[in-house]
């Protein structure tokens, strides 16, 4: 009996053990998933810093404008002024420089005229704290800045480095082994002969796995014999996840299930009430998880997006709610759905008022790779969903994340 999508996902995510942590240099951490909180080792800014080029002064000297103040020094980034600043005195200051301790405001240079060792403050606000970035205004030492499960992108890495970190604890990348199956397959770049097709699926599956934070290894193409399948599967012993593509249905040449079971795989399920992609295999070799995807390229990619991606997220400790699903209105009507959950190819496009609308692809034939490449979302239609008119709110799952 085929499982619903929700039932299958629950089985896949049951008992997931998060990957171990490893410490790596921050320069190598782009795209990795945090395994431990990032706590500030420093305070930022580490001092009261000037936000503008101008003059550091005492606000008490600015009760009446214009006023002429004697210049006693200069402060620049990396070159603070360490001397005193008395009544009636000022310091020439540049952006990023520490504000001298005796001063409490910075007057921008556009509101001043300097000559003969003095500066005249002519106009503008004179409030204390003006144009000063205060000590700790961004973050303070010991403050938690990033939490586990966060993907380290450009903003996160810049923040962690500013907080004093040269290395970070991240989750080890799951190792995903990908095996194509079928006598009809030839490698990309090879001209297919009679009855042959290009082996394209592993590239798309590897792309999804890499986007999800995994490292991938292509095991090659297993031919439609038990010996070839067993030999290729043996090469995946060190992988956390084995993904097979094709050969998981019930035809005479569909050998994946019997061969894997003969090798010791515990089968969890191999049919899903979804379209495209009903023949989906899931099982375990000890701690290794096995995903058997359909051979149809569109079905393979959609099944991997719906099932493999959430599993890899769980391995890395990424919250499932971070997955990118959206609610948006339909741009045109859709028909009633049948008994299987349907993942329709669609695009998000802006309407005349600037909001987004969902445009289903003109054909939902699961053989059309060009149609999948043109889509950017999957329109999720539950089993037996009624017909919907334009403007109805629907759930979509982003293909890119």
What would you say this structure looks like, in words?
The chain folds into four domains: 5-17 and 173-322, MoaB/Mog-like domain (Molybdenum Cofactor Biosythetic Enzyme, Chain A); 21-44 and 137-171, Alpha-Beta Complex (Molybdopterin biosynthesis moea protein, domain 2); 49-133, Molybdopterin biosynthesis moeA protein, domain 3; 325-398, Beta-clip. Helix 1 packs across helix 6 (297-316) and helix 3 packs parallel to helix 6 (297-316). Strands 7-4-6-5-9-8 form a six-stranded mixed sheet, with no helix packed on it. Strands 16-13-17-21-20-18 form a six-stranded mixed sheet, with helices on both faces. It contains seven helices and 26 strands. The chain is an alpha+beta fold. The mean pLDDT is 94. It starts with a helix and ends with a strand.
Descriptors for this entry?
401 residues; alpha+beta; Molybdenum Cofactor Biosythetic Enzyme, Chain A; Molybdopterin biosynthesis moea protein, domain 2; Molybdopterin biosynthesis moeA protein, domain 3; 4 domains; six-stranded mixed β-sheet
Mean pLDDT: 94
Number of domains: 4
Q: Please estimate the helix content.
A: 10-25%
Distance between the termini: 32 Å
Overall SS class: alpha+beta
CATH homolog superfamily of the largest domain: MoaB/Mog-like domain
The largest β sheet comes out as: 6 strands, mixed
**Strand order, largest beta sheet:** 7-4-6-5-9-8
Compact description:
The chain has 401 residues and is an alpha+beta fold. The protein is built from seven helices and 26 strands.
